[in-house]
């Protein structure tokens, strides 16, 4: 019997430890279902033998026969005002593994069974306390590791931005369907015409909103994956020195000997909640060394897999005319790979201030550039600020975000269907057929919130990812 079939057994009371199993100061044990009241009556007594109160703190003892197992704090939530929508009890006991197991076994003896993964949240979903979007947001909230992931999850749990835009899209679709149905019902008796331009306009509005959601999802995945940055350039330009100072670790070998770096050296740079993965590469030059050639080949492989290229130029050893020619060649070379290049002019500590200003003025061309001295730690914060601002622009707090593969696939399906409908409106598809196509949009939309979802495998997959006790 699979997970969902367990859930669908009626009138079963479930129990589980909701805190991590192990020794701690406090452990929380949950019970949910119709037998909550009888179980508590058999195993718990309030201080001074007072009656257990609903939705209030109850302090007392857990008993097995006449033996006291533990002094606990007990909360009894009367249905439907509980997390699951059923009678729900939370027992706060001491965090001894022995005590936890003893209380769980006692609850089972009195009529409950051990809950499956995510069964408390699943019951909340079945009892319409939350929709599927919120249920999945709870899991994402539990797994969140940084501010962005937390913000997306909490917003979707509290039904803010995403839920509002879904509701707007739903209303738009319903309005289109209603107008078409009116035409179909009364066009033979009344002089009623439908304005295809208005339908098309509404469809374009929906398309725009969904497209933004899909793009923002890709930005979130980009953020979670982290930026991959290749530090490249010719030999002895200071690539390894820059790598070490950015990651605050002597990972790359720094030497005056040309061609020291023969392999790709990896390092991690964390700026606030954002991860950047740096790859210090072998200097690009013509060489007869077989080993160095292998290193240079790895450099080009690293470039292919990178999101950004840091191209390092030793500004103290190259003339301004040669720099401009070099930049134009580099831009042309990597433009076809759609790679963003940040030109980093290193070793400015070897130049006078007048020379730096001159170079800066003459290099007033359309490139992203920063002047630094990796050795003297000059301009390093400019590089970090550049990276931070770049990723912050992708994560605009005013946008609508999703952080879930299933949601992304459903919105992608919705977007593809919108494109089909647009073309059918242009080709003047009969209203009866157009209505069927547009109704299908609602089915996809309702799958996101779980309003009409009836695929057992989907529900099984979602709730099995939860911990037992949630």
Explain this structure.
The protein has 470 residues and is α/β, with parallel strands linked by helices. It has three domains: 3-130, Probable tRNA modification gtpase trme, domain 1 (Gyrase A, domain 2, 2-Layer Sandwich), CATH 3.30.1360.120; 141-220 and 401-450, tRNA modification GTPase MnmE domain 2 (Four Helix Bundle (Hemerythrin (Met), subunit A), Up-down Bundle), CATH 1.20.120; 226-372, P-loop containing nucleotide triphosphate hydrolases (Rossmann fold, 3-Layer(aba) Sandwich). 48% of the residues lie in helices and 18% in strands. The protein has 16 helices and 13 strands. The strands form two sheets. A seven-stranded mixed β-sheet has the order 3-4-5-6-2-1-7. α7 packs antiparallel against α15. The longest helix is centred in the middle third of the chain and has 30 residues, at 196-225. The radius of gyration is 31 Å and the shape is flat.
Considering DSSP H and I runs of 4 or more, what fraction of the residues is helical?
A: 40-55%
Taking all residues together, what is the mean pLDDT?
Answer: 79
Helix/sheet category: alpha/beta
Quick one: CATH superfamily of the largest domain? P-loop containing nucleotide triphosphate hydrolases
Give the neighbour order of strands across the main sheet: 3-4-5-6-2-1-7
Roughly how many Å apart are the termini?
Answer: 21 Å
Q: What profile does the largest beta sheet have?
A: 7 strands, mixed
Q: Using the CA coordinates, give the radius of gyration.
A: 31 Å
Integer count of domains: 3
């Amino acid at each position: 019997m699979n997970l969902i079939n367990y859930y669908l057994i009626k009138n079963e009371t479930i129990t589980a430890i909701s805190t991590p199993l192990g020794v701690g100061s406090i452990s929380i044990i949950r019970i949910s279902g119709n037998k909550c009241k009888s179980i508590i009556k058999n195993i718990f007594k309030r201080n001074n033998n007072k009656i257990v109160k609903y939705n209030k703190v109850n302090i007392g003892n857990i008993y097995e026969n006449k033996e006291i197992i533990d002094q606990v704090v007990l909360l009894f939530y009367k249905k439907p005002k509980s997390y699951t929508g059923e009678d729900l009890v939370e027992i706060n006991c001491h965090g001894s593994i022995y005590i936890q197991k003893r209380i769980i076994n006692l609850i089972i003896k009195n009529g409950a069974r051990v809950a499956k993964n995510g069964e408390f949240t699943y019951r909340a979903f079945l009892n319409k306390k939350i929709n599927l979007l919120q249920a999945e947001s709870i899991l994402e909230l539990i797994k969140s590791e940084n501010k962005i992931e937390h913000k997306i999850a909490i917003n979707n749990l509290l039904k803010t931005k995403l839920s509002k835009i879904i509701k707007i899209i739903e209303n738009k679709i319903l309005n289109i369907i209603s107008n078409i149905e009116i035409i179909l019902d009364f066009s033979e008796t009344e002089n009623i015409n439908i304005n295809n331009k208005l339908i098309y306009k509404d469809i374009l509005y929906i398309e725009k909103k969904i497209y933004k959601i899909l793009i923002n999802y890709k930005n979130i995945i980009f953020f979670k994956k982290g930026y991959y940055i290749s530090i490249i350039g010719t030999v002895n330009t200071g690539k390894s020195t820059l790598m070490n100072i950015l990651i605050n670790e002597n990972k790359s070998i720094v030497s005056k000997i040309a061609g020291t770096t023969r392999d790709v050296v990896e390092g991690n740079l964390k700026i606030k909640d954002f991860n950047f993965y740096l790859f210090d590469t072998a200097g690009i030059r013509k060489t007869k060394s077989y080993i160095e050639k292998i290193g240079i080949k790895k450099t080009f492989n690293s470039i292919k897999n990178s999101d950004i290229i840091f191209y390092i130029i030793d500004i103290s050893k190259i003339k301004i005319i040669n720099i401009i020619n070099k930049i134009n060649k580099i831009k042309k070379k990597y433009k076809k790979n759609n790679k963003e290049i940040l030109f980093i002019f290193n070793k400015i500590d070897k130049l006078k201030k007048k020379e730096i200003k001159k170079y800066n003025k003459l290099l007033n061309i359309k490139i992203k550039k920063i002047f630094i001295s990796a050795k003297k730690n000059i301009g390093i914060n400019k590089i970090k600020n550049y990276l931070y601002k770049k990723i912050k622009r992708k994560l605009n707090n005013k946008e609508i975000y999703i952080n879930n593969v299933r949601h992304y696939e459903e919105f992608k399906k919705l977007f593809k269907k919108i494109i089909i409908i647009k073309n059918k409106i242009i080709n003047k598809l009969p209203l009866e057929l157009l209505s069927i196509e547009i109704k299908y949009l609602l089915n996809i939309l309702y799958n996101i919130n779980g309003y009409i979802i009836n695929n057992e495998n989907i529900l099984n997959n979602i709730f099995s990812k939860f911990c037992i006790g949630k």
